[in-house]
Amino acid sequence: MTAMGQMRAAVLVEPGKFVIEQRAIPPPKPDEVLIKVERAGICGTDLHIFHGHYAADKLPLVPGHEFVGVVAGTGAEASRFTEGQRVVVDINVGCGSCFWCRRNEILSCPEMQQLGITMDGAFAEYIAVPSRLVIPVPEDMPADVAALTEPVACVVRAARKSKVGLGQSVVVLGAGPIGNLHIQLMRLVGAAPIIVMELSELRAEMARAAGADAVVTDPAKLHETVLAMTAGRGADVVIESVGAPALYAEAFKLIRRGGHVAFFGITGPGASVPVDIVQTILREDSLKGSVAGMGEDMHDALTLLAHGRFATERFTEASFALSDIQQAFDSVPQRPQHLKTQIVF
Fold first, then answer.
1. Which CATH fold would you assign to the domain 6-148+312-344?
2. pLDDT score of 4
3. pTM metric for this prediction
4. Do 124 and 56 touch, CB atoms closer than 8 A?
5. DSSP states of 302-327 as a string?
6. Tell me, what's the pLDDT at 235?
7. CA distances, 211 to each of 37, 148, 222 (Å)
8. How far apart are CA 18 and CA 327, in angstroms?
9. 255: which strand partners?
10. Cα–Cα distance for residue pair 90/81, rounded to 1 Å
11. Average of per-residue pLDDT across 78-107
12. Which residues pair with 341 in a beta bridge?
């Protein structure tokens, strides 16, 4: 298929500055699907890119990786999809055949690219993507909910890597959008108690509504609260979902002997945290990084959303037109009541 016509794309030309450009609609290659974007969410990673803290060497860039759309055309080798079919997309583009791709660890693929992060993404009216990454959406699933598949997939993967089980105590540091999803998923997998630290009273209340058993808004009281709620042991798992080196350091003080720290929140380049090597060895503590959902994480996230396992209302309240994307990004700090902002096409 040869796509014709023009589309609008929001190009981040420099940190803090979007320009709406007219571009040719990309014709899908034989193994690609052309998608007409319906909604695309603003992610914390998008905000890092917007402020120049991440992927600055990729600018100018069309960001956007949390999206849903409908099939607008297919290449000759992607005929299993039909025009008008609603779909979401796994944004992690690996070679598909290397050691890492075979293990669904695509971020380590030497050829790895990510839509909207290292290559142009979904803050555009159309996007062409490899058909192997396209996932059909249930017909009765609203677009605004389907657009949450990628962020939910991220917390699904983090939970898997942390191996959280029934009755395990979990601390979530930060109850922003992704922290709220961590809380909800911890509730689903049977973690208990779920203890959250969040400085914002508004988002603390959202955390309670999401299923937190205790929310601490005074950092000075966090350690004593965790000990009091875990019989003095410390937490089985601590998830850092802010991206603050000081919180990572604190996380190691909150886990029990043999506990686990989930590295999730993205920091600035070169950030580090001191680790007491001897104590880590003797206590048999562990840590594991996780940032993006991929492969089956996406499919499972879509299934959970389709069956109403996540409360999504606070994630779908705020939307802006593509032409107002600059205002959407600029105003995020002034709208803490909105856990997610979606660009609507």
1. Quinone Oxidoreductase; Chain A, domain 1 (3.90.180)
2. 62
3. 0.94
4. no
5. HHHHHTT-S--GGGSSEEEEGGGHHH
6. 98
7. 32, 19, 18
8. 10
9. 235
10. 16
11. 95
12. 318
Tokens of 275: 């680790």
Residues 197-240: pLDDT tens digits? 999 999 999 999 999 999 999 999 999 999 999 999 999 999 99
The domain limits of the chain are: 6-148+312-344, 155-289
Q: What is the largest CA-CA distance in the chain?
A: 65
Fold of 155-289: Rossmann fold (3.40.50)
Identify the DSSP state of 120: -
Q: Kindly tell me if the per-residue pLDDT of 326 is higher than 50.
A: yes
Do residues 42 and 326 touch, judged by C-beta distance below 8 A? Answer: no
Report the run of H or E that residue 71 belongs to, with start and end.
strand 66-74
Query: Peptide bond preceding 142: is omega within 30 degrees of 0, i.e. cis?
Result: no
- Token digits for 248? 């990572």
Output the DSSP codes for 192-257: -SEEEE-S-HHHHHHHHHHT-SEEE--GGGHHHHHHHHTTTS-EEEEEE-S--HHHHHHHHHHEEE
